[in-house]
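User: I'm putting together notes for a lab meeting next week and I want to include a structural view of one of the chains we've been expressing. I don't have a solved structure, so I'd like a prediction I can at least talk through. The sequence is below, exactly as it appears in our construct file.
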Amino acid sequence: MSNLKKNISIIFLFFLFINGCADNPVSIDNVSLNSDFKIKYGQSVYIPDENLFIAFQDVVEESRCPEGMECFWQGTAKIKLFIRQGNDTMTDTVETYLPQSIVKIGQINNSYLFDVKDVEPYPQQNLKVDVHNYILTLNVSHFTYGFSDSEIDNKTGIYGQVYITGGPIIRRGYIDFHPFKTAFLIVNSRSDTNTVQTDSTGRFLEYTDPGEYKIVQQTRFPILNDTTIYKVANNKMTYINLKYFSGLK
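Assistant: Thanks for the context. Below is the predicted structure for the 249-residue chain, given as structure tokens.
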């Protein structure tokens, strides 16, 4: 099925449910915030208290190290989700390699933490899985970034968390990332630099002027491969996840 047809079918499913225009209304399971739930490929769930719909749209990557094998990288399973809240819709990709992702939706940027608990079935050597058999276990919660409202509201700058990842040989079940305490440089378009120090959990907050910024590592190792230009608007805080690669198991 083409991506266009998938998008149309999922959007149509939502409108059938909301408008009640079908003789046999489409069944969408109700789930709760802060609780694990399962979504099968092509199915949808609804969180009533948030008026939030989530649909399992596609498997965009399956590169996890098969059962019983040793690999140079543990790989990842990436799942494309279709998300709707009120009149706002978006797509987002979640994955097993970095299971926690932040989803912002709506004009007021409601922020949610999407935490991938599992993607089934787990790959087996020389066995291709039918995409229709995939099941995503997910947990959705409000995301506050670990900072207070007084630190974020109507402020200008960057904030977020640093993680360290990597390992030459990864086996199934090996957790390959964790928060990382470090310091790095932020550089603006005039090449002015400023040093940012994280706390013990890798979190950081730095007030800046509006503008464009890039992140530069201070030390040779571990490696920070981030070429993104981050835009900071006036009275807005830009959230950033930085990922270092250690090269060590």
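A couple of points you could mention at the meeting. The two ends are 40 Å apart (CA to CA). The chain has two domains: 3-142, 149-245.

User: Perfect, that's what I needed.
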